[in-house]
Write a structure and sequence with these properties.
little secondary structure; Pectate Lyase C-like; 2% strand
């Protein structure tokens, strides 16, 4: 059933060692997967272009290298999900749970991350150019070397976040909370900051 519905190459569908779906390299482009339980599934290098995954359960799933361009992940549960090198350009991630997720070197350019929970997530060297992270929770997130040029961080919570060597050129950080955030080596040229939160530069 799953093979036919989602154009999977396996017959029958192969399971991971943990008994979860093995969807490695699958073509799930433009599919409606809203509310699906894909927790723990392996979607490494899968094509999920413009698919609907709103309110889906992807907790602890692997989406490393996946194509999630313009995918709708609003309200989805992606806690502890591996999104290393994933492409999330212009993806919809409003109200999504990405707590403790791995987003190292992921491309989130122009993604919508309004009110998204990213506390404890690893966004090291991620591309967040023009991403909208208004009111997002980025407490204790690792954002070392991330490129947030012209990103929107209006009222974002960045308490304890590590922004060392990040590019924050021309971002809107109005009312952003930067208490105890690490900013050593960060480029804050032309940043809009409305309050002098105590951050750490050394």
């Amino acid at each position: 059933m799953l093979r036919n519905e989602f154009h999977l190459p396996q017959d029958p569908v192969i399971l991971t060692e943990q008994g979860k779906l093995n969807l490695v390299g699958s073509n799930l482009a433009r599919e409606d997967l809203a509310d699906f339980d894909l927790s723990g599934a392996d979607l490494t290098d899968a094509n999920v272009f413009r698919s609907k995954l709103s309110d889906a359960n992807l907790e602890d799933a692997t989406l490393a290298g996946a194509n999630l361009v313009r995918a709708d992940l609003s309200g989805a549960d992606l806690k502890k999900t591996d999104l290393t090198n994933a492409r999330l350009i212009n993806a919809e991630l409003t109200d999504t749970l990405l707590i403790g997720a791995e987003l190292v070197r992921s491309n989130l350019a122009e993604a919508h991350l309004l009110r998204t929970r990213l506390d404890g997530a690893d966004l090291s060297n991620a591309i967040l150019i023009k991403a909208d992270m208004s009111e997002a929770n980025l407490a204790d997130a690792e954002m070392i070397g991330a490129n947030m040029t012209e990103a929107h961080l209006l009222r974002a919570w960045l308490k304890g976040a590590d922004l060392s060597n990040a590019t924050l050129s021309q971002p809107d950080m109005t009312e952003a909370h930067l208490l105890r955030a690490w900013l050593k080596g960060a480029d804050l040229s032309n940043a809009t900051l409305s309050q002098p939160d105590r951050c750490r530069n050394n």
